[in-house]
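Notes from the 1:1 (GR / supervisor)

We went over the backlog. Supervisor wanted to see one worked example end to end before approving the batch request, so GR pasted a single chain during the call. The sequence is below; no edits were made to it. Supervisor asked that the structure be written out right there so they could see what the output format looks like.
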Amino acid sequence: MDPIYVTGHRNPDTDSIVAAMAYAALRNAVGDREYEPACLGRVSDETQLVLDRFGFEPPKRIHSMHTQVRDLDFDTPPFLSPAVTISRGWRNLQEHPQISAIPVSNEDGTLYGMLSREDVASYNMALINSGMLENVPLFNVISVLDGKVLNEAGENIDTVGGEVTIALPQSRENLLFHDSNAIVICGYQPDMIRRALEMNVSCLVLCQAELDEDLLKMPTKTCIIATPYDAYRAARLLFHSAPIGRICRTEGLVCFHLEDRLDEVKEQVLKHRDPCYPILDEQERVVGVLTRYHLLRPRRKRVVLVDHNEAAQSVPGLEEADILEIIDHHRLADIQTSGPIYVRNEPVGSTNTIIASMFQDRGLMPSEKMAGMMAAAILSDTVMFKSPTCTPRDVRTAERMARIANVSLEELGREIFSASAGNRSAEELLFSDYKEFHIAGYDLAVGQITCVDSAEMLQRKDEFLELMRKTMQEKGMSMILLMLTDVLLEGTQLIYLGDEDTICQAFGVQPKEHTVFLPRIMSRKKQVIPMLSALWG
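Structure output shown during the call:
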């Protein structure tokens, strides 16, 4: 069964990552085994510290929820070797009537060509005029004729070829074979057999007959094969002993990959109008075939959103996915669904506080290590309970998780917020906890770095401003803010680009050189965004 991804927002923080992992663990623990945690961006140093502290690996990173070729119920017929006989290829086509072409693959699984019914029909029609069989592996001939080699000469050759002739009565000299480049098909016709052996024809096919001992002992280079089939059927089967690699289509093939987006695939299908397309994986190996029918009802990816409910902060292609649930503690935003879903949105400081309650609702206690991570996530998102978003419930929940994990909240908090950021680039720092908003016609981005020494971070202000200016131009933003939230000072050094009057009016301060200190401002969600929303209406 396809997984149900549980994912937080882009540029995920510790609360977002741990919430996805904790909720997936909860659902899987109660029997819903398809839930899988995921993340949408780089795991921050702080989050990695928490994961390492409690012995967890980061969740799988996903890049989009767009419907892809891998989400289609495409066909997976047998993939044939180019050396397989046309007879076997045709049999496979008949066994899969819903498929118009079967992939032909090399030994390493990569695509060689596509074999269709039209290829076989064209080959059959071409034989009406030529009647020639090019050098074909002897094993192929024996296989299609259900035959056996009768003489030593046949054991010494590997291929047979020539003009295929059904031997007629001796009185019709003009219709008989005349040189050694021939494959002669006959029944019990001793004179005809003797002539063929004397001429050293390429191959003699003996149909439903025994060979006299004296003829069998004749010196000859001719390969003698006995078959239980009559002459007419043997002739047709001989031509079907040729390898499919000679007749399958190998040029101008349009291929798709498992990662290709469905909207792009549809454009290509409309453009080329082939009845069947091979599907390849990341190593270019054939995995199936695609027809227009498969495009009609694709499977949509399924996702649970945690710690956000805004499209701009979520995974690209979300509009093509089925959103099953939303668990969040932010304002309600703009995500729409095709039907009713389960939503749990509560005014607390951390998503993990809500998920801890969901463990309790189901009569389940998180494991010791998971509880430790959840306690760390609550500390991170509430800035050690100093954020205005923090509630008494967050404190009680963090204390309970710490008791289960047998850790000290104070020591854990110091460990989290003392994580060094000095060796990280300005880009990594700015986008580690970065969110974009659209408020009353304004496009706004707010990044936040929580630290214990904002003065040290301010020394890199020019780096931040240069990167913010570039981002603002590329994305057409009205304003970009970077919050350097200091746990010890219980306030935020705000670096900004945009209208200075907006900063003055929203926060009642007088900024200087794109910087201002905002005392007691700790939360982007509850203090910065609401102030700008109120100002802009």
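Supervisor's comment: The chain has a mean pLDDT of 89.
Batch request approved.
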